[in-house]
From TrEMBL:
Complete-protein stretch covered: 245 to 610 of 610
Gene for this chain: glmS
Organism: Azomonas macrocytogenes (Azotobacter macrocytogenes)
Location of this chain's protein in the cell: Cytoplasm
Protein name: Glutamine--fructose-6-phosphate aminotransferase [isomerizing]
Record key words, sorted: Aminotransferase, Cytoplasm, Glutamine amidotransferase, Repeat, Transferase
Entry annotation: catalytic residues: 361 (for fru-6p isomerization activity)
C-alpha cells in the first residue's frame, strides 16, 4: 500500500528515518556496538580478521564501496570490493584471515550467490551476509548474518535498502574496530552517539524535497549528467548516477572529482548538468577547485552542501543546503537528496518510477 504517496519509491524514501532506527535497535549498547548482533561466534571470529573481501551487485555494490572507506579509515582493516559478476569468474588471490562479506537486498541475486558458493572453497575465515530478507538463499548459506530491517522494498530502484545497508556496514566497522582494538574507545562512543541521532538527521535531510522538486524541470530535457564526489562521497555519486539512469533514463556517469582533468572535462558544456555532493570535510577545498574548473567551461553545477562548505548559490551554481553531519555518516545523509532528485526528474518526465523498463527487482538469473 502506497498510503499517501504517489509511488512506492517516494514512500520508501520517506521511510528511511524509521527503518534506519529499526536497523540500529538492540544493536547499540553504552557507547559501543553490540558485537553479539552478528551472532554468538562473532566476537571470537572478528578478533582474527585481518582482511575483508566485499562482493555485491548494483546498489549493494555501492554500499560496499562506501564501507571500504570506513573499514580502512576507522577499523584499520584492508578491504577490497568487487561486483559479484566479476569476482565469480576470475582467479582470486585470497589474503590470509579474510572475512568474505556479501551485501544484498533480496538475498537471491544469482551472481552474489554464486560468488558466495565459490568462496566456500577459497580459504576465507567465514562468510557474513548483510541482507534484507531473513528467509533467503544468501542468509541460509552464510556463516553469519546481519539483517537490514528496511521491510519489503517494492520500488525496483533501491532506496531504503541501501541506507540500511550502510548502517549495517557502519555497525560492522565499529564491531571489528572494537574487537580488534583498532578503533579508539572514544571514537566508537562518538560514532555510536551520532548513529543514535542519525534517524532525526535523515528526517531533516528529507526536508530538502521541495527544493529538489524545483530542479526537476531543469533536468528533464538533458541527455547527459555527471555526478562528482571525493572520498566516500564518490560511491554516493555513483549511486546517485545509477538512480537517475534507472528511473529517468538520463545518461549519468559518476567520477571521483579529481579525475575530471583526466578526461571527462572534455564533455562539460552548458547542456550537461554536473551534480556534486560536497559535505564540508578535509577534501572540500579540493572539490571546490574542481567545481571552478567546471564553471570555467560553462558547466552548470547542482551542489548539495552544508553551510560550512562555503559554497554559494549564484550564476551557474544551484546550491541545495544540507544539514551538517559528522563526516563518517555523511554518505548516508547525502544519499537522500540524490534519491529525491532522480525521483522528481522521473516524475516530471512521466516514466514508470516503480517499474523502470527492462529491469527486475531481483536478478535471479545471470
Ligand atoms: C538498483 C538496484 C539494483 C540492485 C542489484 C542487487 O536500484 O536495485 O542495482 O541493487 O540488482 O540486488 P540485491 O541487493 O537484491 O542483491
Amino acid at each position: 500500500d502506497k498510503g499517501e504517496y504517489r509511488h512506492f519509491m517516494l514512500k520508501e524514501i520517506h521511510e528511511q528515518p524509521k527503518v534506519v532506527q529499526r536497523t540500529l535497535e538492540g544493536r547499540l549498547g553504552d557507547g559501543q556496538v553490540m558485537v553479539e548482533a552478528f551472532g554468538p561466534q562473532a566476537a571470537e571470529l572478528f578478533a582474527k580478521v585481518k582482511n575483508i573481501q566485499i562482493v555485491a551487485c548494483g546498489t549493494s555494490f555501492h554500499a560496499g564501496m562506501i564501507a571500504r572507506y570506513w573499514l580502512e579509515e576507522l577499523a584499520g582493516i584492508p578491504c577490497q570490493v568487487e561486483v559479484a559478476s566479476e569476482f565469480r569468474y576470475r582467479k582470486v588471490m585470497v589474503q590470509p584471515d579474510s572475512l568474505f562479506v556479501t551485501i544484498s537486498q533480496s538475498g537471491e541475486t544469482a551472481d552474489t550467490l554464486a560468488a558466495l558458493r565459490n568462496a566456500r572453497n577459497m580459504g576465507y575465515l567465514a562468510s557474513l551476509a548483510i541482507c534484507n530478507v531473513a528467509i533467503s538463499s544468501l542468509v541460509r548459506e552464510s556463516d553469519l548474518t546481519l539483517l537490514t530491517l528496511a521491510g519489503p522494498e517494492i520500488g525496483v530502484a533501491s532506496t531504503k535498502a541501501f541506507t540500511t545497508q550502510l548502517v549495517a556496514l557502519m555497525l560492522l566497522t565499529l564491531a571489528l574496530g572494537q574487537v580488534r582494538g583498532s578503533l579508539a574507545v572514544d571514537k566508537e562512543r562518538q560514532l555510536v552517539e551520532e548513529l543514535r541521532r542519525l534517524p532525526a538527521r535523515l528526517g531533516e535531510a528529507l526536508a530538502v524535497n521541495a527544493a529538489i522538486e524545483q530542479l526537476a524541470e531543469y533536468f528533464a530535457d538533458k541527455n547527459n549528467t555527471l555526478f562528482l564526489g571525493r572520498g566516500a562521497q564518490y560511491p554516493v555519486a555513483m549511486e546517485g548516477a545509477l538512480k537517475l539512469k534507472e528511473i529517468s533514463y538520463i545518461h549519468a556517469e559518476a567520477y571521483p572529482a579529481g579525475e575530471l582533468k583526466h578526461g571527462p572535462l572534455a564533455l562539460v558544456d552548458s547542456d550537461m548538468p554536473v551534480v556534486t555532493v560536497a559535505p564540508s570535510n578535509e577534501l572540500v577545498e579540493k572539490l571546490k577547485s574542481n567545481l571552478q574548473e567546471v564553471r570555467a567551461r560553462g558547466g552548470e553545477l547542482i551542489v548539495f552542501a552544508d553551510g560550512r562548505a562555503g559554497i554559494e548559490n549564484g550564476e551557474g551554481t544551484r546550491l541545495v543546503n544540507m544539514p551538517h553531519i559528522i563526516d563518517a555518516l555523511a554518505p548516508i545523509l547525502y544519499t537522500i537528496p540524490l534519491q529525491l532528485l532522480s525521483y522528481h526528474v522521473a516524475v516530471f518526465k512521466g516514466t514508470d518510477v516503480d517499474q523502470p523498463r527492462n529491469l527486475a527487482k531481483s536478478v535471479t538469473v545471470e
